[in-house]
Amino acid sequence: MRHLYKSWLPGSLGLLLLAVPAMGAEAIAGTVRELDRIGNEMERVSAAVGPKVVQIVTQSLKVAGTGDEQPTGVLVAERGRGSGFFVAPDGYLITNAHVVANATRIRVLAATPGAPPAESPREYIASVTGIDAENDLALLKVDVQGVPFFDLTRDATARQGQLVLAYGSPMGLAQSASLGLVSAVERQLNPDDPRAYIQTDASMNPGNSGGPLVDLEGKLLGINTMILSQSGGSEGLGFAVPLDVIRQSYAALRDRGTVARPRLGIQPRSLTADLIAGLGLKQRQGVLVEDVEPYGPAAAAGLLPGDVLVSLGAEPVHTMRDLYRAECALSAGAPVELAVMRGPDMRLLRITPDAARKLPPALSAGGVTEKENLVFRLGMYGATLTPALASTLGGVRGGPGVLVLALAGTGLAGENAIELGDVVHGVNGTAVDTVETLRSTVEAVPGGAPIVLQIERAGMLSYVTPGAMPGAEQRLKKTSSMIRAEIRTDAANPPARGLQW
Q: Coil, helix or strand for 413?
């Protein structure tokens, strides 16, 4: 019994049980009763929290990178699992942005309220309502009404040393709970990163991402987001985005589908002892202005690189975290006062924040399709180079063209002269400006004839001769003969019954 309790209780309670043999029978009975009471409370919390928690299963596409099992640059399909939880009775739920990144299909598996654990979960197809990439949050919607949910208006604050429960689907094991302590609150992983997390030693593993972190009353404290690990598994260093961030993101994502802070036009930096000494700064607290965007709000207000920002509006600014909070309270177009130290002098300036810039939509592997992007004969997936897309690349030299998003097969890696990130400008001297024109131009080249592409790579133009696949006519003949062969083979050797996709 002693070892059983010790295996699941956190450190301090586990040590308490080591002293049990030296206690009297009455004291032992009292300790057992107290542990039973704690266990009963946790059962009650799990019964209330469980129906609010879901498992998320995704199908997605990604471009393989260094360290993946597939060769770098190849477009590959993958399946993923994570967690989430309902935050409204009409089917809105919160998860991590990385759980649904590049997803082409999102399934949500939810427990049926009041049903026995053995009953199969209900399954829904979810759509993405909005993404807060900065805080790694995503708002999803499923078509359901009257689901149990976490009320985000209920205040709950994490306290160091507090007992907490982490829920989710570690390693795909749905409806799992783990117990631990709040190791720290307001934990910054980097002084120049304004985001702060709840740190906990409650066990978290891959698949826990997106699940709720709750107190012993079942109140939401945060969303399980990441672990620090050398082994890839839980080492007692888990981090959750706190409730106040979830609440702000949910309101913005449900209302506008996006989260955007007003823009000041500065590059901030945390003050360190080396910066203070090396730059001869008189100010010990504040945020250093490393750079000022030309013609931006800060430049118009008179800020200069080297200033130390000490307040914004009515809020003092001691750290990057303070600046982040103060910025979130600003409104675009509404002037606000700020105070900076310039050398030994304090200066009061007036700044009018701009609306956040609308970035061109990012190209993700999740949006790639064979119909729109595949150029079969070149063994690549491409995207038409629009002005907005060209600006994200820092501009291109050769004018219109097609950006290489990925290679189309593992056999092409290391053999195809085209690389991820190339821009194709021409085929055999004919300019191409869309995926459709590239596809039709290469298809028009007779089988066996050379194909010469003009490409741009890292700002340099060059000609390459890729090993092209057969033309459409030859490809059709090969496919037909292959199908006939497969039919004969299958007829002679019917497939075994069993696990199928």
A: coil
Structural contact between residues 176 and 204, judged by C-beta atoms closer than 8 angstroms:
no
Q: In this structure, are residues 456 and 422 in contact, taking their beta carbons and an 8 Å threshold? A: yes
In the three-class reduction of DSSP (H, G, I as helix; E, B as strand; rest coil), residue 397 is classed as coil
pLDDT for residue 491 is more than 90 = no
Is 71 in contact with 32 (CB distance < 8 Å)? no
In this structure, are 438 and 415 located in the same domain?
Answer: yes
Q: Are 125 and 17 in the same domain?
A: no
Backbone angles phi, psi at 488, to 5 degrees: -65, -45
Q: What is the pLDDT of residues 37-89, one digit of tens each?
A: 888 888 999 999 999 999 999 988 777 766 666 666 677 778 889 999 999 99
- 228, 260, 292 — which closes off a domain? 260
Contact between 20 and 4 (Cβ < 8 Å): no
**Residue 241: what residue type?**
V
Average pLDDT over every residue of 162-191: 91
Contact 351, 336 (CB under 8 A): yes
- d(CA 459, CA 425) in angstroms, rounded, equals 13
Instruction: Assess whether 197 and 281 both reside in one domain.
Output: no
The three-state secondary structure class of 28 is: helix
450 Ramachandran zone, left/alpha/beta (phi>0; psi -120 to 50): beta
pLDDT of 419 higher than 70:
yes
pLDDT of residue 117: 58
Active site residues: 98, 136, 209
Note down the domain range covering 332. Answer: 266-351
Token pair 């003969």 is found at 481
pLDDT in tens, 343-385: 889 999 999 999 887 655 555 666 777 788 989 888 888 999 9
Domain count, the chain: 4
Alpha carbons 279 and 417: distance in angstroms, whole number: 50
> Chain-wide mean pLDDT for the chain?
82
| Whole-number Cα distances in Å, 42 to 36, 216, 243, 253, 364 | 10, 7, 21, 32, 42
Q: What angle do CA 143, 144, 146 make, to 5 degrees?
A: 155
If asked whether residues 58 and 86 sit together in one domain, one would say yes
What pTM was computed for the model? 0.70
Tell me what percent of the residues of the chain surpass a pLDDT of 90.
Answer: 45
